[in-house]
């Protein structure tokens, strides 16, 4: 569980660092992580 939280935090940092330039790619990756979390919890 901690690994997933750390991964999400790192993605948040990537999103804020890259700004609008790559935000869509980062958001897609973030959504993939959330979806995989839901699958693991289900």
TrEMBL record:
<protein>
    <submittedName>
        <fullName>Uncharacterized protein</fullName>
    </submittedName>
</protein>
